[in-house]
Specification:
Chains A, B: Its cofactor is Mg(2+). Chain A is mainly α and 364 residues long. Chain A has helices spanning 3-36, 41-52, 57-68, 76-99, 111-122, 128-153, 163-188, 197-224, 229-256, 259-262, 268-272, 277-285, 288-297, 305-317, 320-341, 346-361, and strands spanning 104-105, 108-109. Chain A has one domain (3-361): Orthogonal Bundle (Farnesyl Diphosphate Synthase). In chain A, helix 3 runs antiparallel to helix 4 (76-99), helix 12 packs antiparallel against helix 13 and helix 15 packs antiparallel against helix 16 (346-361).
């Protein structure tokens, strides 16, 4: 077996184990919930559906963080940690889609839309949109609790006061803080000083995404395996710029991505009013008239395809797209350099390099 | 010192300790959050504000469950458990108020209204209502995570697989399931069979309220102190009917309560479209025309004070109010009988009797 095959097999085994763990976990909870009332099945179904798909980026970062710190291949603790991260991500997506009024997720309806559709199909009373939103708030809360239950199931290594527990707690609090800064910038950005907009957008990226998607999951895996502080610092030096590149790529895809590949409508970020680094750079570098146009359309429910086209043109012509691509390259390079400096076995190092490549150059 | 004084002092000490624990906990998290950005202060402020008030019913049930099972007065574990329960309750209230579109909480604005008002006061862009809702979803998520952090802080006695942990997990899942059944009944109730409405409303009460507000907190305290299974069964026999009486009283106050005492607008439950036992009994016992009137107004945003008056009249004249008061009396008596049958020291038994009296006869 070549190194590349070994890596593929081991990674596939882990992903399958996480999927199995999630199925087992949700099946046991399904039993409890059905005992209360079969009416709750759609809530459980919406959670199962969401944890079935996805790239498993966070679980994989956790796994290779664990392996890099000397953890055994396929050990139970890291599988459970991966499942807890996936459940947390599902909870975050459910609430995120309500907040951003996103009707689609991975090409299908988002959870609040599923429940609105259920309401309509059943001919229920009152407002279907409100019902969908309320049901999705509760589905997200339940999923958040499940994520915690799974995390506790890790046992001793994730007990009160353990380093893994502290990382998990910090990860949750920081991503919620970052999401608040994100929605705050949508409404406060237009009246705040434009000079600070790019740095505010970078801070949002760091907390809502980079720390959450790559830095903390990698550190969590490392901490579970008893990584030294030195190794954890090295992990951060790699994962933080990688996460920043990851989110900048996400921002580019949110404006320029192909709906068939991303599973999201074209220009979705613009309709949601996201003031990303990409947008902040455009506002800074475009003509006053063009910036005013972006400001007037961003977050507008009436934003149409023509507006999306025009904003895309401004972002390209102002040089903001190119500047963002340069930033992605720089962050990516910083990540690769930090990775090469890490004292890791060949297998986890190669795995992390592959993950980094997929993250920076992805199209969905 | 008389027994009554001892009880008052011990209870006051515990409530003060929980308040101190909450302040310490939130102050430490405030430090982390301010480090990310002072912009997050209003989120932390909204959580602090919410855990400052309230009746501390759940924390007190937990405390006397602990004491009844032989736990020491004022021990750290039960104080931390009380703080975790209060944080969980605050998280539930934040999301509940979004779901129910409640603009007030304890006489002040609810969290989503606070953020809408902040938006308006600052002259921010886009929609203040949407911003308020999004911020409150995130504030509730953060508070839910905090509740878990606090619970884990209990340590060994609440570790993975412990009985206290299982109760805490079940409590969270059941209250979320109960809340979903509650919003489902609002929309599906009008098209479901009327004959089953009262029993559906009773099932909702059990899961969203009775188990959550009294049964599980009492059992949690007991489990932390190492209660026998017999004692836990006895606790349930007392706390479950008590919790049912508690919620039925809440339902009566939601329609007939004095806004000055409840801190909620008159007839708030009717505007929210809650299909409580009280309402289900009225729909069952009123004339077809009166039932049709209730059905047409329940949950309507246009419900006015005249409608509230008329629905109150129908609930009274149909005998539903009296029937609910009889139920409250019956559940209360069942709780008292079960309490007397418990093998408890005089102090916790008296304390639980007092809590039960306050719960069943309260006016707010």
């Amino acid at each position: 077996m070549t190194g590349a095959e070994q890596l593929r097999n081991e990674q596939a085994d882990f992903v399958a184990s996480v999927a199995g763990e999630l199925t087992g976990f949700l099946t046991s909870r399904q039993g409890i919930m059905s005992g209360i009332s079969p009416d709750i099945d759609p809530i459980m179904g919406s959670i199962s559906n969401l944890v079935t798909g996805g790239k498993r980026l966070r679980a994989l970062m956790c796994y290779w963080g664990w392996r890099g710190a000397g953890g055994d291949a396929g050990a139970a603790e890291v599988v459970t940690a991966g499942a807890a991260l996936e459940l947390f991500q599902a909870a975050a997506l459910i609430h995120d889609d309500i907040i951003d009024r996103s009707d689609t997720r991975r090409g299908g309806p988002s959870v609040h839309r599923r429940f609105s559709q259920l309401h309509e199909a059943q001919g229920w009373a009152l407002d279907s949109g409100r019902f969908g939103q309320a049901a999705a708030i509760l589905a997200g809360d339940l999923c958040l609790s499940f994520s915690e239950e799974a995390f506790t199931d890790i046992g001793e290594r994730a007990a009160s006061g353990s380093r893994a527990r502290l990382i998990f707690n910090l990860m949750r609090a920081e991503v919620m803080a970052g999401q608040y800064l994100d929605i705050l910038e949508e409404v406060a950005g237009p009246v705040r000083d434009r000079a600070g907009a790019v740095s505010r957008a970078q801070s949002i990226i760091r907390f809502k995404s980079a720390k959450y998607s790559t830095e903390h999951p990698l550190a969590l895996g490392g901490a579970l395996a008893g990584a030294t502080n030195d190794l954890l610092r090295g992990y951060s030096a790699f994962a933080l710029p990688l996460g920043e590149a990851f989110q900048l790529r996400d921002d580019v895809l949110g404006v320029f991505g192909d709906p068939l590949t991303t599973g999201k409508p074209a220009g979705d970020d613009l309709r949601e009013g996201k003031r990303t680094v990409l947008v902040a750079l455009a506002l800074d570098q475009a003509s006053p008239a063009e910036s005013a146009f972006i400001d007037s359309r961003l977050g507008s429910p009436e934003l149409d395809d023509g507006d999306v086209q025009e904003i895309r043109r401004i972002i390209e012509d102002s040089g903001a797209l190119q500047a963002t691509e340069v930033l992605i390259g720089e962050y990516g390079n910083a990540a690769y350099e930090a990775l090469e400096a890490l004292q890791l076995d060949e297998l986890p190092k190669t795995a992390l390099r592959r993950l980094a490549e997929a993250t920076v150059s992805r199209a969905s």
